[in-house]
Amino acid sequence: MPSLNAQAKHPVSITLNGRTRMGHASPRMLLSDFLRHELGAHGTKVGCEHGVCGACTIRLDEVAARACLTLAVQADGHRVDTVEGLAPEGRMTALQDAFNRHHALQCGFCTAGILMSLSDYLERVPKPTETELRDMLSGHLCRCTGYAGIVRAVMDVTGQTSGNADAEDASGRKEPVHV
Amino acid sequence: MTALTKAPSEIAPAAGAPASAALIGQPIPRLEDAAILTGQARYTDDLPVKPGTLHAAILRSPHAHAEILGIDVQAACAMKGVSAVVTGEDAKRFAAPFLVGVRAQMEHWCLAVDRVRYAGEPVAVVLADDRYLAEDALDRIEVRYRPLPVVMSIDQALSGDGEPLHPAVGSNIVNTRPFSYGDVNAALKAAEHRISATVHYPRNSCTPMECFVVMADYDRADGAYEVLSNFSGPFAIHPVMAKALKVPGSKLRLKLPPNSGGSFGNKQAVFPYIVIMGVCARVAGRPVKWVEDRLEHLMAATSATARRTDLEAAVSGDGRILGLRMEQTDDVGAYLRAPEPASLYRNHGNLTGAYRIPALDVVNRLAVTNKTPTGLNRGFGGGQLYFAIERLMHRIAVTLGLDPLDVIRRNLVPAAEMPYTTASGGILDSGDFQAAVEAAIADGGLDDLKTRRDRARAEGRLYGIGYAAIVEPSISNMGYITTVLTADERRKAGPKNGAQASATVSVDPTGGVTVTVASAPQGQGHRTVLSQVVADVFGLRLGDIAVNTEFDTAKDAWSIAAGNYSSRFAGAVAGTAHIAATRLRDKLAKLAASQLNVTPEDIRFAGGRVFAAGNPDNSLSFSRVAAAGHWSPGTLPDGTEAALRETAFWTPPPLKAPTESDVINSSACYGFVFDICAVEIDPVTAQVRIDKYVTMHDAGRILNPLMVEGQILGAFAHAVGTALYEEYAYGSDGRFLSGTFADYLVPTACEVPVPLMLHRESPSPFTPLGAKGVGEGNSMSTPVCIANAVADALGLEISTLPLTPARIAALIEKPEVAKPAGMAAVPSKAPATAGGRGLRGEGSRTVPASPEQVWAILLDPKELAALLPGCDALDLAGPNAYRAEVVVGIGPVRARYVAEVELTDLDPPRALTLSGRGSSALGFGEGSGHVTLEAAADGTRVVYRYDAAVGGKVAAVGGRMLDSATRMLIGQFFDRLIARAGGPAAVETSPSLLTRLLRLLGLRP
């Protein structure tokens, strides 16, 4: 790794959602701050800045990563994908659409991170069991939904139902798994 | 009874509700989601800042209680990029202490003046060109403190021991208020049984994912503040902020953003920071921005009150409660911060819960402790209240050998008595509690659960079932808080009551409809529900309604009850929007009537058309009528105002001020919640597993079932955390111990099951749409329901939360067997003294040099500096006394400590004591190590014993790592000493734990 002058700002160039974006960052600047405040990509949220809550999750070279635990200079020359890039031309993906139908978000502050983790995870595990899915989601904190709608949305979009889903109401929601 | 996920429910229209409601009651997915899901939604920290904005970082007290002897900001001010450092001196110049809700001499300044009273209290603010530079400068502020004894529990405050936090008050019980409703003494004397319980509710918080954000500016010409913040209300706090800034309310313009990342009440507590940043903007003469970080939020933002409740009930042989005596003591933290003591009074009208208890005596006390001030938190006061009441119900059943369900059934308020006035004045507005309970038992499958319990117990497993029945108050009476004052004090202050909501609906020349409300949505779906309500009134589609969720005190209609709290949206805010829309519709009907040659009463609105009731072909498009209101006001009938904009204010009729006898209806509506919980406890790990959870709600008329179930699921998840995991933990010396999400355990997707949700709808007679609040019920009912299930499983009393494995293990496990002989001793924790986290340990190492050589190294400042990890140089400060700068990293934080190091008890070349104390922006640390040197065959055996204490941020975030980090630092010291003395070079063969951790966190290459 090259040695950088700690006191100086350095040019950082990333491929953000398919486009080259350039900005400047001091070596200690977090990737989350660089995205949000240097490039104006506010879709990525910051919830704890110590790597637990998952709100800032982005994809770095296609792998889900915490932007708050990554330095901007580490991303120089790399591909970064954020929530803004999920729905090109404004058409929501099936997953985003399922989040809406299943009321998988309320305040929405954790949502971008969860979507980015899922976009990576579902490429690798296209049909997770509910247990596998919940295990993966445990890397994200949501204070609004109790995770129920998130689980329902993913089970729906992966062509599975979460449990004994024989009933479906007007909004197309499936019956949740009751404990 | 219906499960909304199975079938849409029959909705009985409430009085005044439109008969042909098309959208209200439908499970319509949210309109706000698309912007959030695509990353377009704007939260406060995403909004643009003015050019030249300074970024703030706050220096916080590492001590829970200390005098401030002096603050030196010179070095910080001299740093690159720093514009100003603001302290309590500036607060004294430009601000006033906050108003306090009781008569007691307690001064609470936005920045500490003379004394700090909780760990994390703001002491100074650095304003710099960016946040990184501001945080750098925090390290350079030197504050000298004189630590004071701390008060860390309600019981300590009650005992009268300990230093008064506010000397002018003289006691840490700052308010005591007795209330008497009916003859409880007579009931107790006459009763067959007297059953009592004492419970303790812990401090916890809902911790929204978005922390506080404040952007403030000061206009010198106008002497006015302008602030943008994710404040949530209640706007009764606005006058508190304005008075603290010493301006009239009109000179504190407060704007709220379009989106907020959750609140659950907590965002109320941003208000002291609005005042701080106002002062900062004024001092710096530039706009300022502050974004709270998670450690700050956990440590110092706000908390639910901890509460001790003592209950004694007069109980008949069959389990009916004839009279209840309760003493409640709330720990409100270091200051009674507005709107406290609301936690203690919010439920005053429903202290007897869902039960018919004819006589009630109450003593309410407020205790101050050296902890973070408390405030709004989902369930506000209800979790505390029902933890006591529903534990008592369970206890009555166990004591009398009754089925807990029968005790609940016999005490529930009968449906025939609705609306029912409670002993303390609450008016339970509607519902059939018995029917709801029976439906939950049948549809929730209680019989199956009992079979499972029997089977589990037969196999020797720990399985239990618990219940809770509560009323869920919504739409707070702004007068309830004055119940803390005596009737005499209230007479002097003037009556306070009501819960005014406001909404504005306007129609533009193209027929577009815009709705604004005095609320601050944090994810509840205001845009969707308001669109449903207003679209129905005008016969339009959802997409025709634009709901603007930004808010501006300088331009929007509001009053003190405005804001998003006390579950007031569905009942009050949506209802008020309905009133405003209906008024505007009536005006449009007049406009249309003159053009269609019918009377306004015959005008109908549907499908985007305005038409005559008897002849739908005689019609105009909605937009045509709207255009007429703008383009041809002259065509209006005489006396009709043309403006197509209506603002409605509405207050719930039953909300009066407290009476002379302290009777108060504290909320406009009371929903009903009945829960059944089955748990199994692992006898080995002591983990509680929720096997099944059933929650029955009657929240009046349901406006959108998706939103209602979302609220229930969210409150349930919070409650699982409250019951099993979450607690703001403090050391006995006031140190805050849960400063990260790795320490404050929020439930993840693996811990939160999906409850079975059941619903009934008994419309409230008191709200415009018949709706009641629903977002807090499970925060009140679920913690105690889980506790009752655990008590049933263990056959033991449960008197506090959270029910962590450690707590359960202490109840069920036998004493640990003794450690096998020969096992290495683990350093024991020293009792924390002098305000720190106690660390203690001992050990020995052999150094390949003679005792004299080792001694010479230790006594040479240059040599010693090279041995101390993180130390660059020691400056001589006296004989064998040095001053040093030491950089220490624990977990995710690193701190530059300014330390005083001293060598004492010198017994050359045999023994010495090395002691040091230091402080930094991250806290303080002190310790001493006694070292003896013994000549050995292969050099010198160095034996050491140390005691250390660490406080402040390092203790809060790195508590779990302190012991190992200390051992590692000592290890490094000896590695260097051995290397210096000529032994094997202290080359790290594998990276240390700390290095690995820092690498993991990206702080080390």
UniProtKB/TrEMBL annotation, chain A:
Q: Which SUPFAM superfamilies match?
A: 2Fe-2S ferredoxin-like (SSF54292), CO dehydrogenase ISP C-domain like (SSF47741)
Q: Which PROSITE patterns match?
A: 2FE2S_FER_1, 2FE2S_FER_2
Q: Which residues form the 2Fe-2S ferredoxin-type domain?
A: 10-86
Q: What keywords are annotated for this sequence in UniProt?
A: 2Fe-2S, Iron, Iron-sulfur, Metal-binding, Oxidoreductase
Which is an annotated GO molecular function term of this record? 2 iron, 2 sulfur cluster binding
The family database entries (Pfam families) matched by this protein are listed as: Fer2, Fer2_2
Protein name in the entry: (2Fe-2S)-binding protein
Name its species.
Answer: Skermanella aerolata
Taxonomic lineage: Bacteria, Pseudomonadati, Pseudomonadota, Alphaproteobacteria, Rhodospirillales
From TrEMBL, chain B:
* UniProtKB keywords: Molybdenum, Oxidoreductase
Q: Which domain of life is it from?
A: Bacteria
Q: Does the keyword Transmembrane apply?
A: no
- Please verify whether the record's keywords include Repeat: no
InterPro entries membership = Ald_Oxase/Xan_DH_a/b, Ald_Oxase/Xan_DH_a/b_sf, Ald_Oxase/xanthine_DH-like, AldOxase/xan_DH_MoCoBD1, AldOxase/xan_DH_MoCoBD2, AldOxase/xan_DH_Mopterin-bd_sf, CO_DH_gsu, START-like_dom_sf
Region called Disordered, residue ranges: 823-847
Q: What is the name of this protein?
A: Carbon monoxide dehydrogenase
Species this protein is from: Skermanella aerolata
Query: Lineage in the entry?
Result: Bacteria, Pseudomonadati, Pseudomonadota, Alphaproteobacteria, Rhodospirillales
